[in-house]
Write a structure and sequence with these properties.
43% helix; single chain; 5-stranded mixed beta sheet; alpha/beta
């Protein structure tokens, strides 16, 4: 309906009231539709192969405030196998006196280094001349054995790749995100050793099959997560055999465990942490963590997710309807600032507990049971109050070791999300198992501060997973 000013002047009061009610009805319907679209857009997980058409770059290149000051490169510390060549660079005779006044110069020594590798590393070829005895009557063969030579290494598989080259290839693929084809090409370019994508895949399958070396390590990491005092978990989209699935991650300061499953339900969470988990579980607001099996599990809901949800509701409101979400966000941000102040040593334990109790009382008052006129605000009130009554919003005020956000899990999933973009996920269930095992091992090695290729080279023959260095965060 469209009216000119002259047409409106000719209408009666009742007709004008009818028009106002009609416009008000349409406005409410459109507002409801907009709210539903925004809510669905926020819930929808990102497509694994989204091309982000029309996306603008929000970050400008260059160093930004808060990233710290630029520091020079430190002098490299020689390792036990490094070759160090020292050259003395001295002043010439005509440079030892000042060019202005002729006085002798006082000398000092400054160190400058150039670190490099050979144009092509020297290959280490270990050759075995194996004596084989053959029975002239029945043809039975007897092969000589050696500790460094597997019993099945003969015939078509007589010439194999060593642990160090395999470790570098696996590190480039699973830790650095290169495709297997590019990892093999990089190894060939650097060392001259030719690899194939299928050879790397077959070797990974042997290491990760049930009962094999890496499979045993993976099960040990899962058990470590189950026994950890604090575990952060999150999930993201994945594809297996072309169908939608989920990549789940469980993270502690020194352990990372990934799991690919067709569903993300309470069963898949219990599969990792078990039914008797006694630690604290850091999560988002996913429904998988609200099952009855987790009623007795201490949980810390991610405050960043809560603040984001409140902001999405707030931007659709006007006037007094914005007050509820705005005040609730201020309280949650105040609790975040308090936790950071305590972690940075700017606030003692007693002050932390006292101010934390004040924030808790303020939040309890804001989340008191009542009826709000706005349906979206009522939905947020009911949902957050339920979590607050279970002590899942401000648990970190009682246990400072617990992080108030799920940022650890978000960071832990980031390398897998990048790998998803270039790997097209998993072609089958076997590939999914390879990814979850190899990614768990390589990310755990990085979390524990060890060199990934060197550690993998030791794990392949059967060495145990190294622990974090002494004094590292646990």
């Amino acid at each position: 309906m469209e009216f000119t000013r002259e047409q409106l002047r000719e209408l009666t009061k009742d007709q004008l009231i009818d028009i106002i009610f009609e416009f008000d009805k349409r406005l409410k319907e459109q507002s409801k539709r907009i709210t539903e679209l925004e809510r669905n857009a926020a819930r929808r997980s990102a497509s694994p192969f989204s091309k982000n058409k029309g996306k603008k770059l929000k970050k400008k290149p260059g160093r930004r405030a808060g990233q710290g000051t630029f520091t020079r490169r430190e002098e490299p510390e020689p390792g036990p196998t490094d070759m160090v060549e020292t050259t003395e660079v001295t002043l010439e005779e005509d440079q030892r006196n000042c060019l202005d006044c002729g006085e002798p110069l006082e000398t000092k020594v400054e160190v400058a280094t150039t670190i490099d590798v050979p144009t092509q590393p020297q290959r280490n070829i270990q050759r075995f001349n194996v004596e084989v005895g053959v029975c002239p009557q029945c043809g039975r063969q007897e092969r000589a054995s050696h500790p460094d030579l597997p019993r099945d290494q003969f015939g078509a598989t007589a010439h194999r790749i060593g642990e160090n080259v395999l470790a570098w290839a696996f590190a480039l693929h699973y830790a650095s995100g290169l495709t297997l084809r590019k990892a093999a090409a990089a190894i060939a370019m650097l060392t001259g050793i030719k690899l194939t994508q299928s050879a790397l895949t077959q070797r990974a399958k042997q290491l990760c099959k049930s009962g094999a070396t890496f499979d045993v390590i993976y099960r040990e990491l899962r058990e470590e997560v189950r026994q950890s005092p604090v575990v952060n978990t999150d999930d993201t989209g994945w594809r297996t055999e072309g169908r939608a699935s989920y990549l789940m991650g469980f993270f502690t300061p020194s352990t990372a465990v990934y799991q690919v499953r067709d569903f993300h339900r309470r069963q898949e969470v219990i599969e990792v942490i078990g039914l008797c988990f006694e630690g604290v579980l850091g999560t988002d607001r996913g429904p998988s963590y609200e099952a009855e099996e987790f009623d007795e599990v201490l949980q810390q809901k991610c405050l960043s997710h809560l603040i984001k949800n409140l902001s999405e509701v707030e931007k659709t409101k006007r006037g007094w309807a914005r007050r509820f979400t705005r005040e609730l966000k201020e309280t949650l941000r105040e609790s975040l600032e308090l936790w950071h102040a305590h972690q940075e040593g700017r606030l003692g334990w007693r002050s932390y507990r006292k101010k934390g109790q004040e924030i808790r009382e303020k939040l309890d008052h804001q989340l008191r049971e009542r009826v709000l006129s706005d349906t979206d605000n009522q939905r947020m009130l009911d949902g957050i109050r339920l979590q607050n009554d279970r002590n899942r919003v401000l648990l970190f005020l009682d246990i400072p070791e617990v992080e108030p956000t799920n940022n650890r899990a978000e960071r832990g999933l980031r390398p897998a999300v990048i790998a998803r973009k270039v790997s097209q996920c998993s072609k089958n269930a076997t590939g999914a198992h390879l990814f979850e095992v190899m990614k768990s091992i390589t990310e755990t090695i990085k979390l524990r501060g060890h060199n990934v290729p060197e550690t993998l080279a030791k794990l392949i023959p059967g060495d145990p997973m190294p622990l974090p260095p002494a004094g590292a965060e646990s």
